């Protein structure tokens, strides 16, 4: 699972689209970002971690999220002045343009008001709220008086530190942690990095995080891109695991079959070409006794083959019936216990599996 944790400023940024550092307006990017986050969450590809501290910080600061709306409202309140000026020089269509301008502003205000509600609902209802235990509160308090990052700049980072460090507890509490990746997003490079390397956690913080797979990202859009890459990697990894699972076998060699304590296994992850004796012996010059019978060469194929990881005995799948066969002696002809097809591994320059024309039961 991919987890995202966003600091308080990022939540505000999601709400008003104003870059927390430059205060620059990122247009309607905030609409797009929240939709992409919700898509990820609804498809269960990403979980967003929040805690009670982040939620109460949001409550305390959400008025700031309305900055954009206030700006728009101020514009909407005073159009007469601007348009009186315009009307002095432009004679046609100004009333229409004025109407359109005001309608646009009103719509923008509505959209942004709805958007803030959307962000708040998302934060409180669609994100994973993780507990902040008392030990963690003590730990964050101790860190805050120790002068270590993220408290080395004498700023109040309790909320953001609490979300970051509660992730560690949260990950420890998960039963399966195989593919878990966490991305912590904060624009606050001053407190979360050492200022020299702004793409990595401050060494103090890294020490606190231990071996947990938690990455630092400055900006949300790039964190989302990063999570998409990770999603692809995880998908590849899962496909590979699923494939390995599909070709795995339990060893049936004499050496392992009686093992009681555990099940020896292997993966039929290599391929061996199959050649048929009959194909090899079709000789165009030879007198054919039954010329009316079509002698179709059998289609070439490949079978899965590999060794048991414990006893190294080669196992392969019968080219005729797909039964698992253990090859105790690779130099000998053997017959499939299921369908009696006679086969032999030929260790040529390009090894192959030779399939004989007659089955064992037909010989006998
Ligand atoms: Zn074995
Ligand atoms: Zn068989």
Task: Characterize this entry briefly.
The protein is α/β, with parallel strands linked by helices and 364 residues long. It contains 13 helices and 14 strands.
Describe this structure as you would to a colleague.
It holds the Pfam family PIN_12. It comes from Phaeocystidibacter marisrubri. With 364 residues, this protein is α/β, with parallel strands linked by helices. It has 2 domains: 2-241, no CATH class; 250-363, no CATH class. 45% of the residues lie in helices and 16% in strands. The chain contains 13 helices and 14 strands. Strand 10 (314-317) and strand 11 (324-327) form a beta hairpin. Helix 1 (8-16) runs antiparallel to helix 6 and helix 2 runs parallel beside helix 6 (94-126).
Keywords:
14 strands, 364 residues, binds zinc ion, single chain
Element order, helices and strands? EHHEHHHHEHHEHHEHEEEHEEEEEEH
Largest sheet: 7 strands, mixed
Instruction: Give the strand line-up of the largest sheet.
Output: 11-10-9-8-14-13-12
Q: How widely separated are the two ends?
A: 58 Å
Portion of residues in beta strands equals: 15-25%
* Parts with pLDDT < 50 across at least 5 consecutive residues: none
Class of secondary structure makeup = alpha/beta
Each distinct ligand: zinc ion
**DSSP E strands, number:** 14
Oligomeric nature of the chains: single chain
Helix content: 40-55%
Q: Give the tally of structural domains.
A: 2
Radius of gyration, CA atoms, in whole angstroms? 34 Å
Number of helices: 13
Q: What gross morphology would you assign?
A: elongated
């Amino acid at each position: 699972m991919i987890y995202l944790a966003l600091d308080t400023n990022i939540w505000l940024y999601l709400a008003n689209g104003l870059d927390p550092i430059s205060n620059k307006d990122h247009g309607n990017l905030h609409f797009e970002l929240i939709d992409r986050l919700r898509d990820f969450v609804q498809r269960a590809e990403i979980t967003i971690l929040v805690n009670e501290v982040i939620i109460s910080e949001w409550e305390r600061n959400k008025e700031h999220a309305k900055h954009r709306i206030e700006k728009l409202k101020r514009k909407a309140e005073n159009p007469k002045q601007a348009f009186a000026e315009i009307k002095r020089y432009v004679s046609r269509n100004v009333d229409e343009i004025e109407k359109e301008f005001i309608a646009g502003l009103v719509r923008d205000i509505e959209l942004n008001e709805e958007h803030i509600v959307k962000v708040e609902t998302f934060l409180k209802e669609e994100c994973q709220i993780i507990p902040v235990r008392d030990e963690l509160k003590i730990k964050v308090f101790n860190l805050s008086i120790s002068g270590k990052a993220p408290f080395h700049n004498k700023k109040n980072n309790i909320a953001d530190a609490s979300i970051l460090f509660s992730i560690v507890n949260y990950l420890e509490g998960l039963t399966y942690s195989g593919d878990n990746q966490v991305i912590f997003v904060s624009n606050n490079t001053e407190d979360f990095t050492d200022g020299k390397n702004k793409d990595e956690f401050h060494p103090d913080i890294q020490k606190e995080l231990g071996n947990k797979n938690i990455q630092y990202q400055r900006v949300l859009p790039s964190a989302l891109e990063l999570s998409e890459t990770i999603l692809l990697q995880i998908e590849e990894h899962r496909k590979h695991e699923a494939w390995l699972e599909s070709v795995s076998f339990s060893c049936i060699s004499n050496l392992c079959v009686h093992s009681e304590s555990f099940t020896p296994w292997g993966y039929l992850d290599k391929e061996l070409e199959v050649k048929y004796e009959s194909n090899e012996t079709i000789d165009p010059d030879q007198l054919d006794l039954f010329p009316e019978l079509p002698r179709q060469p059998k289609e070439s194929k490949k079978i899965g083959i590999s060794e048991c990881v414990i006893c190294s005995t080669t196992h392969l799948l019968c080219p005729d019936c797909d039964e698992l066969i253990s090859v105790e002696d690779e130099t000998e002809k053997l017959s499939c216990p299921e369908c009696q097809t006679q086969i032999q591994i030929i260790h040529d320059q390009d090894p192959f599996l030779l399939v004989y024309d007659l089955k064992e039961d037909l010989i006998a």
